[in-house]
Amino acid sequence: MIRLKLHWQILLAVGLAVGAGLATAPGATLLGVEVLAIYDFLGTLFLNALKMLIVPLVVSSIIVGVAGKGGVAGLGRLGGKTLAYYLATSLLAILIGLALANLVRPGEVDGQPARDLLGLSADTGAVLEKVSERGGGDLVEIFLRMVPTNVVAAAAEGQMLGLITFSLLFGYFVTRLDGDLAGTMTRFWRGMAEVMLGITELVMRFAPLGVFALVAKMVGTSGLEAFRPLAGFFLTVLAGLALHMFVVLPMIIMLVARVSPYRHFRAMAPALLTAFSTASSSATLPLTMDCAEKNAGVSERVSSFVLPLGATINMDGTALYECVAVLFIAQAYGLDLTVAQQVAIVLLALLTSIGVAGIPAASLVAIVLILAYVGLPAEAIGLILAVDRVLDMCRTSVNVFSDACGAVVIGRSEGESGILREER
């Protein structure tokens, strides 16, 4: 019996889910239970299983990775390379979005602002309620989140920045222990990491079913009608994300890491498809680490540091989306932004893609912050709500792929020769 590889199973599930979602009429039932409710239950169950793995996997992996580096020099070198890569790729993504938004001008129809044609979504009030208490202080809050008052509470609330800080410190001071104690602690956390990877493999056996349910619910709820009034904006963002994911990032790993982009896509396919269906870099993290280590051949030493950090602060797709969204809204309102204003938007998009990563409705909060700088009303966020969910799925896939490319680039720069060198 032929058994399809996991990425083909997930891809098939996505295709079937689109058909099932379109065929599911509102209010349709199966054995007395609403079909959309069944999709929601299965999708939520899968997401919960993935989220269950995040905290113990991230903590154990980082501690093992840092403890294996043996000191400040190795950790500092790796951290410097990681931050440089993430800043560079995010900036490239924003510049792509800026260029496309100015070239295509999706906020205009026949050369005129599209404000009257588009109108505002009925859900604008709900979004404004979410972001009404947010402000520029959210950019400062990132530093406060790095040092949690209670690490257990941070774990319960999913505050990944605080957990990463704690794990880095814990791993470093494991290296300062006497021989026997250091060995005992390292073996314990290495065992924990191996157990979590085993549970991840178990959860991923059900990934096709979970992905099917998540995508079918999205399509069944939204349909395809929501995309027609915003086709220009939708396609501009999609083109930018595609250019970054299929041209820029592959060129980086081909020219800098000198490995095959095609092999890397194959290695990371299960993680990318899961990221698309879950729209969550954090929820996909267990599978991202599994694919990077077992399929791409990146060492645990590199992946355990680069990938958890990337899932928290590296948001190439989100940064690109923020930039295009603000320019689209400005164009729709007939506002002609100066070069200086557009440069400021680039910098704000770069900062907010990192600074608001841990905030609910993160990209929407960031867009509101940038709109306030430009001088546009926050209500303008309603223009993009209809297509935000699907674009969220797409930009999350870009975020995850950028993280994975970073692991490959940094692994190769650290002298690892077995990355993507042979079929796995």
Description:
With 424 residues, the protein is an all-alpha fold. It has a single domain, classed as Sodium:dicarboxylate symporter (Proton glutamate symport protein, Orthogonal Bundle), CATH 1.10.3860. It has helices at residues 6-23, 35-67, 72-104, 115-118, 124-131, 137-145, 151-157, 160-174, 179-204, 207-222, 231-255, 261-278, 281-295, 300-313, 316-332, 339-355, 362-374, 385-413, and strands at residues 29-30, 33-34, 108-109, 112-113. A two-stranded antiparallel ribbon has the order 1-2. Strands 3-4 form a two-stranded antiparallel sheet. It is globular, with a radius of gyration of 22 Å.
Tag the structure with descriptive keywords.
two-stranded antiparallel ribbon, 4 strands, globular, two-stranded antiparallel sheet, 424 residues, mainly alpha, Proton glutamate symport protein
Number of DSSP-assigned strands: 4
Which structural class is indicated by helix and strand composition?
mainly alpha
CATH class (first level) name: Mainly Alpha
CATH superfamily: Sodium:dicarboxylate symporter
Outline type? globular
Instruction: Fill in the CATH topology.
Output: Proton glutamate symport protein
Can you give the mean pLDDT? Answer: 80
Q: In CATH terms, what is the architecture?
A: Orthogonal Bundle
Residue fraction in strands? under 5%
How far is the first residue's CA from the last residue's CA? 21 Å
Strand order of the largest sheet: 1-2
- Uncertain runs are 120-128, 130-136
Count of discrete structural domains: 1
Radius of gyration: 22 Å
Helix content: over 70%
Number of discrete helical segments: 18
Give me the strand/helix succession. HEEHHEEHHHHHHHHHHHHHHH
The largest sheet, given as strand count, sense and whether it forms a barrel, is:
2 strands, antiparallel
